[in-house]
């Protein structure tokens, strides 16, 4: 019996999807290209805007939604809170300035394009965050102890948190919330604040109590973490905000607890990195159509403007804070290229904005192009500048980590 496209059998959809994801990731790792790029392109090629091999529903859509909240959960988990406290001045300075410059420049572009104010601010918001896709390269080059790197890593906490909080406000004001009453925008935020206070106080204690039990296996501990993730994500949505806020909150709540339980953390991360997160990127790639990539000049024009916002906004913050704390030129360049890639939080905010009608399809297409470009350039530039930093040690950039045997 011949196979008809798009494939309608959910089991066959899943089999094709997993096979394609595996092949793409294995192939790209061999040539040191970020797997994220291949997954986005894979979604574009297989989806409705490409060869129409796979539909977005039901398999890709469902697993992609879980992948979205998993990304934000892991973003909360991977924040090194001790590093943030140790370098608080540099972290707060760089994070707040990078957020503000990108937000204002992005909103300015939105207004220039004729967007209404909620959409313009949301455009600035999605560009104000960044994703540390070059983190593995830093680890391999042993540059994690350098002060410019610490400032960039710590600044991620502030930029992502501020971006998500502003997202919640804009969704209530611009999207009207779930009840369609924008005049009540403050109520979901009040409830979110209460949820955060209760969760940050109670969930770590509950998790430690569960994890201390000798009869609880690592797999069961991982299931508890997944329960906490889904419970907070669902609760955040029920009170009128976005599930990605609840997922990020769950990651912050379990940050220290899972850091103390490495086996459990590996179980939790394995599930997300193996299945849900890759499929989210494929799902997002399906939003982009091939004819847009090759034929829509306006989309590429918007993408060029957004790339300019990203580079200029992060560069201003890197040079101002770098000058304030005496970082070398290479150190400032490293801060720029580390925070240039737009991926996880940017995608999450873009998808949320599109779902409530604040972002049009051409803007979503432009954002995906920005993600492709910045995530291609970022790791390559990080490797190049990282080699220069190791070769030309600057005292003001902090200690040089020597290779270990």
UniProtKB/TrEMBL annotation:
The chain crosses the membrane at residues 6-24, 31-50, 62-79, 91-113, 119-138, 150-173, 185-203, 270-288, 300-321, 333-351, 363-382. One of its GO terms (cellular component) is membrane. Residues 20-382 form the Cation/H+ exchanger transmembrane domain. Signal peptide: none annotated. This is Cation:proton antiporter. It is a multi-pass membrane protein. GO terms for biological process: proton transmembrane transport. It comes from Alkalisalibacterium limincola. One of its GO terms (molecular function) is antiporter activity. Keywords: Antiport, Ion transport, Membrane, Transmembrane, Transmembrane helix, Transport. The keyword Acyltransferase does not apply. It is found in: Membrane. Pfam families: Na_H_Exchanger. It comes from the Bacteria.
């Amino acid at each position: 019996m011949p196979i008809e496209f798009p494939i309608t059998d959910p089991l066959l959809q899943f089999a094709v999807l997993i096979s394609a994801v595996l092949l793409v990731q294995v192939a790209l790792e061999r040539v040191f290209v970020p797997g994220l790029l291949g997954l986005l392109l894979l979604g574009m090629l297989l989806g409705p805007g490409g060869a129409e091999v796979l539909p977005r529903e039901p398999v890709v859509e469902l697993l992609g939604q879980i992948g979205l909240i998993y990304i934000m959960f892991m973003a909360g988990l991977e924040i090194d809170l001790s590093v943030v406290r140790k370098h608080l001045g540099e972290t707060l300075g760089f994070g707040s300035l990078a957020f503000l410059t990108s937000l204002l420049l992005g909103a300015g572009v939105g207004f220039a394009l004729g967007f209404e104010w909620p959409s313009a601010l949301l455009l600035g918001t999605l560009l104000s965050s960044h994703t540390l896709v070059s983190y593995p390269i830093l680890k391999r080059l042993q540059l994690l102890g350098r002060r410019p790197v610490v400032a960039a890593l710590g600044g991620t906490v502030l930029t992502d948190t501020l971006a998500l909080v502003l997202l919640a406000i804009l969704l209530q004001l611009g999207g009207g919330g779930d009840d369609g009453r924008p005049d009540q925008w403050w109520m979901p935020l009040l409830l979110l604040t209460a949820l955060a206070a209760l969760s940050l106080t109670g969930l770590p204690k509950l998790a430690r109590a569960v994890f201390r039990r000798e009869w609880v296996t690592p797999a069961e501990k991982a299931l508890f973490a997944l329960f906490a993730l889904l419970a907070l994500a669902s609760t955040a949505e029920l009170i009128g905000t976005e599930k990605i806020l609840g997922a990020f909150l769950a990651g912050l709540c379990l940050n220290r607890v899972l850091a103390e339980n490495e086996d459990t953390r590996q179980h939790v991360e394995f599930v997300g990195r193996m299945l849900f997160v890759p499929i989210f990127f494929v799902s997002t790639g399906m939003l982009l159509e091939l004819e847009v990539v090759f034929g829509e000049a306006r989309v590429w024009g918007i993408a060029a403007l957004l790339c300019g916002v990203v580079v200029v906004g992060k560069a201003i913050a890197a040079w101002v804070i770098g000058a304030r704390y005496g970082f070398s030129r290479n150190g400032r360049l490293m801060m720029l290229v580390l925070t240039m890639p737009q991926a996880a939080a940017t995608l999450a905010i873009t998808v949320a904005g599109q779902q409530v009608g604040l972002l049009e399809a051409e803007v979503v297409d432009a954002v995906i192009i920005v993600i492709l470009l910045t995530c291609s350039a970022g790791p390559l530039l990080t490797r190049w500048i990282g080699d220069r930093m190791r070769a030309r040690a600057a005292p003001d950039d902090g200690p040089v980590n020597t290779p270990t045997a």
